[in-house]
Design a protein that fits this description.
With 462 residues, the chain is an alpha+beta fold. The protein is built from 10 helices and 27 strands.
Length: 462
């Protein structure tokens, strides 16, 4: 029994010695391995199917810099007809990022994760790295945009008018042209990859230019189903300053002749476009950040308000509408109660109207700058609907606060200048109901909460 116990002890001691020896061997082998690969890339690392194990990061950089040689003196020429724009490979910083790829190769097996490091160094068969190929994409984008400015032609929809019981075109349609930016960049990327196999110093990239067809063409004048007037809107703006009169006329002209397709959600802001000095608008009073101030496009809300009234008259669904912050006398002139108005301020505040009739709707505007009146006529097909404004109420009328006087060191002493104008506050609501053959199509309450507004004066202190 004793002998058997001794044998077990001896066996255990032998195994311990073997394990300890194995441990010492592995530690020594690991140390030798790390010593040999100090500052070098670990085995099994490949770039372009070339083994770089045992080589340095500098070797990888040298290899990729040599691969960049075919790119150094290349020029890219974007062309369409007589329009040309060029970029050099140097401007684009085109080529393989040698430093990045060298760093990636060296860091294989040197991460913060010991188990993945162990696998990468001793158990992985092959780690294939793809060298990072780059160019300045923003410079390509800028170049494409610059040449496209000379090529792009905006599409022009036909504009129409209704007279003598029929629709006729007063502005013909015109095809547009546009450079396909996405396809141009795809072609560029494709040609770049083939540079090492080409001898030409200039790489030509033909620009793909597409024809854009108008939505409304002149030859379709008889297929819109426009038969009669279905809605009417009216407003007055007597007392407007010249800049405001100009803006009302300009904005109204840009809606004159517009067609709204059946099922379309019409956006006032989209139809009008940019409102700024660059598009012809003048400075006039607008409501901005709680103040009445001079700004480009003052008076455009006269147009949105008049269109809102025409849409109500036609019994169309109003998908989006916002009342003004305070009462504006223009929108109550002509016998209108407070609240039948619609303010716009792109891109966030919009007037949106749905055409749920069976035909196109033609928008026709008319402005009288002598009587200071604006009229909207909507033409389409009368499907028997009837619109009503019911229970129009105005309450909570409050006087404006006392005027505010502020010192202004830019004005001469003793001079006073009014920069904001008093308005009475009120709340308003009305029911908008649309029916057809006993069916209710719309039943909506529109509310307005007009703040009392104080007059503001500047007093000179200069």
């Amino acid at each position: 029994m004793k002998n058997r116990k001794n044998k077990v002890i001896i066996l255990g001691q032998s195994i311990s010695v073997v394990l300890f020896g194995l441990f010492v061997f592995l530690v020594a082998a690991g140390a030798i391995f790390e010593y040999f690969f100090q500052g070098k890339i670990y085995p099994h690392v490949y770039i372009d199917n070339i083994a770089f194990g045992g080589k340095t990061a500098a070797d990888v950089e040298q290899y990729l810099l040599a691969k960049n040689q075919p790119f150094l003196h290349k020029t890219f020429s974007f062309r369409f007809s007589g329009s040309v724009a060029t970029l050099s490979a140097e401007q684009l910083d085109l080529g393989y990022d040698a430093t990045l790829s060298a760093t990636q190769a060296y860091l294989v097996g040197r991460s913060k994760h010991p188990f993945s490091n162990l696998y990468a160094k001793f158990f992985s068969r092959a780690i294939h790295l793809t060298p990072y190929f780059r160019w300045k994409t923003d410079m390509v984008d800028t170049t494409i945009e610059s040449i496209a400015e000379n090529i792009d032609i905006p599409v022009v929809d036909a504009l129409f008018q209704f007279s003598n019981g029929k629709v006729s075109a007063f502005r013909p349609s015109r095809d547009g042209k546009r450079v396909n930016r996405v396809e141009t960049k795809r072609r560029f990327a494709e040609l770049v990859t083939g540079i090492p196999t080409t001898q030409e110093s200039t790489i030509i990239i033909p620009l793909p230019v597409e024809t854009i067809k108008p939505t409304f063409t002149t030859d379709r004048v008889n297929v819109f189903g426009i038969k009669e007037r279905i809605g009417h809107g009216y407003s007055e703006f007597m007392g407007s300053i010249p800049g405001r009169i100009h803006n009302v006329a300009l904005a109204a002209s840009r809606l004159n002749g517009v067609l709204i397709k059946p099922g379309e959600l019409f956006s006032f802001n989209d139809a009008i476009g940019d409102i700024s000095a660059a598009t012809g608008y003048q400075s006039a009073y607008i409501i901005k950040e709680g103040r009445t101030v001079l700004g480009d496009g003052g008076g455009v809300c006269q147009v949105s308000t008049t269109l809102f009234r025409a849409a109500l008259s036609a019994g169309l669904p109003i998908a989006e509408r916002r009342a003004h912050a305070y009462r504006v006398h223009y929108y109550e002139d002509g016998g209108f109660k407070p609240g039948i108005d619609a303010t716009v301020f792109g891109p966030t505040v919009d007037l949106k109207i749905k055409n749920d009739t069976p035909a196109y709707i033609l928008v026709q505007t008319s402005i009288d700058t002598q009587k200071m009146t604006l009229t909207f006529e909507l033409y389409g097909t009368n499907d028997g609907r009837r619109s009503e404004i019911l229970n129009h109420q105005v309450w909570g009328i409050t006087p404006p606060p006392a005027p505010l006087y502020q010192d202004d060191p830019t004005l001469p002493k003793g001079r006073t200048k009014q920069v904001d104008f008093a308005a009475w506050g009120a709340k308003s609501s009305f029911q908008y109901k649309v029916t057809r053959n006993g069916e209710t199509l719309q039943d909506q309450i529109f509310t307005s909460n007009f703040q009392p507004w104080r007059a503001v004066y500047l007093q000179g202190t200069l």
